[in-house]
Design goal:
The complex is a heterodimer of chains A (638) and B (252). Chain A is an alpha+beta fold and 638 residues long. Helices cover 37% and strands 14% of the residues of chain A. Chain A has 17 helices and 19 strands. Chain A has helices spanning 15-22, 28-31, 43-55, 93-103, 110-130, 162-179, 245-252, 316-320, 330-345, 359-365, 367-385, 440-460, 474-492, 499-513, 520-540, 552-576, 600-603, and strands at 35-39, 58-62, 80-81, 155-156, 183-186, 189-197, 200-208, 214-218, 221-224, 257-258, 263-269, 292-296, 313-314, 354-357, 394-403, 406-407, 420-422, 605-610, 619-624. In chain A, strands 5-2-1-9-17 form a five-stranded parallel sheet. Chain A has a five-stranded antiparallel sheet with strand order 11-15-14-12-13. In chain A, strand 18 (605-610) and strand 19 (619-624) form a beta hairpin. In chain A, helix 5 packs across helix 12 (440-460) and helix 14 (499-513) runs antiparallel to helix 15. The longest helix of chain A has 25 residues, at 552-576. Chain A starts with 14 loop residues before the first helix and ends in a 14-residue tail after the last strand. The radius of gyration of chain B is 21 Å and the shape is elongated. The longest helix of chain B has 18 residues, at 230-247. In chain B, helix 2 (117-126) packs antiparallel against helix 6 (194-207) and helix 5 (174-186) runs antiparallel to helix 6. In chain B, 36% of the residues lie in helices and 12% in strands. Chain B has 252 residues and is α+β, with helices and mostly antiparallel strands. Chain B is built from eight helices and seven strands. Chain B starts with a strand and ends in a 5-residue tail after the last helix. Chain B has helices at residues 33-46, 117-126, 146-156, 163-167, 174-186, 194-207, 218-222, 230-247; strands spanning 3-9, 18-24, 68-70, 73-74, 95-100, 108-110, 113-114. Chain B has two domains: 3-110, Roll (Ubiquitin-like (UB roll)); 117-247, Fumarate Reductase Iron-sulfur Protein, Chain B, domain 2. Classes of the chains: A alpha+beta (638), B alpha+beta (252). Chains A and B meet through helix 3, helix 5, helix 6, helix 11 and helix 12 of A and helix 1, helix 2 and helix 3 of B.
């Protein structure tokens, strides 16, 4: 199979305009005849569902939470990038594009990223007109802050709750469309499989989480906006419910899974404190605007931080990367923290932590300013650790936060399965091997508000005149049967071990061997261990209760069963990619000073994996990445 | 630490519920309240018993999924949602009562899980600015003074959890509705539909069976997002304007 990215012709700056000028349109009377399924109601899902409904499509939107407003985009803290150049500090579409490509370690698609930078400006306009209360100056203008991997201030924010406010904007737009009867919302409903009719994605099978009813839903096209797979690590900054099931089920129906080993480890999270923990809490990257990262110069120095004099502290990011300093990109900052701790200079319990110190900023700006900028984060930190960051430095450590990999899509956001579109974190396309801060919100909303409304016509215009798809087709009945079988299989194991135990074990294997540093031997061990764990799962897992009721153990068991398969693919991808790039650091491939070493001649390509049946190795397809406008350079933040 | 839990168990919406005593032993003080419930649940599963159903998602206080009443207080002691409550706040050996939100308009689905779809229907009645994607002017075209933007943000911080209605003796949802009306009606973009919005959301709220505000301030006291009860005053003002405007047939 050849993966055709369908990049429009013409110079980079003209591609999106050319595309729109020549895109296939669907007239308003015909839009009403098309039914669109949107799975997920985060930034990508809610914005797509609302916008497509405004355009006149019949939309069905699904979320497993009790309300569309609870999707995990809500938890994003720091901000959203846009090339507005309101600060007059030299920003431009080109610069945002270049920073994103470079931040992704030259492993993202040029044309997609340029389009993202272009529409970033429209997103801010759109959100302001929905009533998103971005931070402003006294004169009433919008204000910005800077984020990692950029030397301009282009990040718009709403206190430490930018994701919440952007999602509430999209959710408001969605609510309006539901009220008008143009979107049918299905809350507490989880997609468990994708239905193909003649090789095209034409519906889903979903389980109502309150009644347990398993039911088919038909449509002309399906949009997966189901987020990332970070929870495969068990401990992550993701919400408890985040899962890989929707995209994994699509993979098992033939969709290519691209770059699963590209995972982002966020440098500033509250360190792990014990094995009772259910999640890790992120402290926004925006804190690095004013906080300075350091560890003691001496190994095993267990003095209180305030007793360690200035000259005995190692501000290692400022030392190693003088031009970006504390705002070095996430992958680099995380790895540096690991290095500092591995060398025995970590702080706090187990030596797994570094300091993020605000004392200089408090002295310079006053406590009030710091409180205004980060008050809620400081409060959250104190609540969890019992320590005040106004009085002593925060202790932070990297944690899994975001996944750049996802289902393969072309320029139109369609996967290799015709009719299956994938938006937001669930696809692979824009962030390469590492995502810059404040770019996830940008991508989710770009895909939903501005890309898919323009690209959906490319597929739908080929679907006129066919027979109407209904759930009476045998394809739906068959898939429904398979879903029921899988649910019954989980319920019938009747072992004694809770689902969480397997999930936690899987997470430990992956964090250890497919986390911040990966080796060939480690990855091979991980694959073997995951296989063994999966076997044990299907013999020993205990899922109490029945299927036809609210059964949270059953929900989790289904998700963990999929994680147990997915984790293996992630390790296989990491093993096959014999280079280091962005968040993927293979110990065998590093420069003498410990930086990631890419091998552009063999690996400047997307790895897209195709399912080849139970027990068989998946097949690897490569989409070469060709760079016309930028020069492949060694990433330097020094 | 050890705790005697008195947990609300209820099989389904139409069966009666009751408190059940469960021991939570050997709990680390750094554990969050929900992690303590996870531990209890995993022990129940290992013992072949049915775990307690409760909802949570982000576990960092922002998604609003938590719906627990801990010792009579919706979202538990201290600021923030129930997921932000840590066991070090309790005394060793304490008896802790855990119930679902109690409000007629939030029927119990199972154990500690409630149905809050009433809030969704209120939002759909008017909790938005009608605009279509792509038609927006440049974001800097309309200046919004910082104090106005800040007040709008204070109200917009609502996480939609429902603790306000659960705490109110009248089961009033006016803090929730007031927060949305204040957020949107303070902003210049929200002006065209300001009166209509207040009218439509209050009517939807009444239809769902929520009571009215009689100044107990219980909502403000439990609100995990610290939304001020002054949003209810703003709601009343805009609602009266909206009703009068409609009654006299004015253009609004």
């Amino acid at each position: 199979m050849i993966l055709d990215a369908k990049i429009p012709a013409g110079p980079l700056e003209q591609k999106w305009t050319n595309f729109k000028n020549n895109a296939k349109l669907i007239n308003p009377a015909n839009k009403r005849k098309f039914n669109v399924i949107v799975v997920g109601s985060g930034l990508a899902g809610a914005s797509a569902a609302a916008t497509l409904a405004e355009l006149g499509y019949q939309v069905d939107c699904f979320c497993f939470q009790d309300s569309a407003r609870r999707a995990h985009s809500i938890a994003a803290q720091g901000g959203i990038n846009a090339a507005k150049n309101y600060q007059n500090d030299g920003d431009s579409v080109w610069r945002l594009f270049y920073d994103t490509i470079k931040g992704g370690d030259f492993r993202a698609r040029e044309a997609n990223v340029y389009r993202l930078a272009e529409v970033s400006r429209n997103i801010i306009d759109e959100c302001v007109s929905q009533g998103v209360p971005f931070a402003r100056e006294y004169g009433g203008e919008l204000t910005n802050r800077s984020f990692g991997g950029a030397q301009v201030s282009r990040t718009f924010y709403a206190r430490g709750q930018t994701g919440q406010q952007l999602l509430l904007g999209a959710y408001s737009a969605l609510s309006a469309q539901i009220g008008l009867g143009r979107v049918q919302m299905h809350e507490h409903t989880e997609m468990l499989d994708l239905v193909l009719v003649n090789g095209h994605a034409k519906g889903i099978v979903a389980r109502n989480l309150i009644t347990g009813e398993i039911k088919s839903h038909a449509a002309d096209t399906v949009l997966l906006c189901t987020g990332g797979y970070g929870n495969v690590f068990y401990l992550s900054t993701n919400a408890r419910g985040c899962n890989v099931t929707a995209t994994w089920r699509a993979y098992k129906r033939g969709a290519a899974f691209a770059n699963p080993c590209y995972t982002q480890i966020h440098p500033t999270c509250i360190p792990v404190a014990g094995d009772y923990q259910s999640k890790l809490t992120l402290m926004s990257e925006s804190l690095r605007n004013d906080g300075r990262v350091w560890v003691p110069k001496k190994k095993g120095d267990n003095r209180e931080p305030q007793d360690i004099p200035e000259e005995e502290r190692d501000y290692y990011l400022e030392r190693k990367y003088p031009s970006y300093g504390n705002l070095a990109p996430r992958d680099i900052s995380s790895r540096s923290a690991k290095e500092a701790c591995d060398s025995g200079r970590g702080v706090g319990p187990g030596g797994l932590g570094v300091y993020l110190d605000f004392s200089a900023a408090i002295q310079r700006l006053g406590r009030n300013t710091i409180e205004e900028r980060y008050g809620n984060l400081f409060e959250m930190y104190e609540n969890i650790t019992g320590e005040s960051a106004y009085e002593r430095p925060m202790r932070i450590y990297p944690a899994i936060h975001y996944t750049m990999g996802g289902l393969w899509v072309d320029y139109n956001l369609m996967s290799n399965i015709p009719g299956l579109h994938v938006l937001g974190e669930a696809n692979f396309s824009d962030h390469g091997a590492n995502r810059l801060g404040a770019s996830a919100l940008m991508q989710g909303l770009a895909d939903g508000y501005f890309v898919i409304p323009n690209t959906l016509g490319e597929y739908l215009s080929t679907q006129f005149g066919g027979p109407k798809i209904t759930t009476d087709l045998p394809e739906f009945k068959k898939t429904e049967e398979e879903v029921r079988e899988r649910v019954n299989k989980l319920l019938s194991v009747k072992g004694t071990v809770p689902v969480d135990t397997f999930h936690r074990e899987l997470g430990l294997i992956l964090w250890d061997k497919c986390g911040m540093a990966r080796t060939e031997a480690g990855l091979k061990e991980a694959i073997a261990e995951i296989k063994a764990l999966r076997e044990r799962f299907w013999k020993e897992v205990c899922v109490p209760g029945v299927g036809a009721e609210l059964n949270q153990s059953l929900e989790r068991a289904g998700r963990v069963a999929d994680f147990l398969e997915f984790g293996e693919l992630m390790c296989l991808d990491a093993l096959t990619r014999e280079e280091s790039c962005g968040g993927h650091f293979r110990v065998e491939h590093q420069t003498p000073d410990g930086e990631a070493l890419r091998h552009d001649d063999t690996f400047a390509s997307v790895f897209a994996w195709l399912y080849k049946g139970e027990g068989n190795e998946p097949e690897l397809e490569r989409e070469p990445l060709s760079y016309e406008a930028v020069h492949l350079a060694t990433r330097s933040y020094k | 630490m050890n705790f005697h839990l008195r947990l609300w168990r209820q099989k389904s919406a139409d069966t009666p519920g009751r408190f059940e005593g469960i021991e939570a032993t050997n709990i680390t003080p750094d554990c969050s309240f929900l992690e303590m419930l996870d531990i209890v649940n995993n022990r129940l599963i290992t013992d072949g018993k049915e775990p307690i159903a409760f909802e949570s998602d982000c576990r960092e206080g922002i998604c609003g999924t938590c719906s627990l009443v801990i010792n009579g207080v919706p979202q538990g002691p201290g600021r923030g949602a129930a997921c932000q409550v840590y066991m070090r706040k309790f005394k060793d050996g304490e008896t802790i009562f855990v119930e679902p939100f109690r409000a007629g308009s939030f029927p119990i689905l199972k154990d500690l899980v409630v149905n809050r779809s009433a809030y969704e229907r209120i939002m759909r009645a008017g909790g938005f600015i009608s605009e279509h994607t792509g038609g927006a002017p440049d974001a800097s075209a309309i200046l919004i003074p910082k104090p106005v933007a800040d007040k709008a943000m204070d109200a917009a911080a609502c996480i939609g959890c429902g603790a306000c209605a659960a705490a109110c003796p009248n089961s009033s949802a006016m803090l929730f509705v007031g927060a949305k009306v204040t957020h949107l009606n303070l902003l210049p973009q929200g002006q065209p539909e300001a009166k209509k919005r207040a009218r439509a959301m209050v009517r939807a709220m009444d239809e769902e069976g929520f009571g009215n505000c009689s100044n107990y301030y219980a909502c403000e006291a439990v609100c995990p997002a610290s939304v001020s009860a002054s949003v209810i005053a703003k709601l009343n003002r805009d609602y009266i304007k909206g009703e009068v405007s409609e009654a006299v047939g004015a253009i609004d």
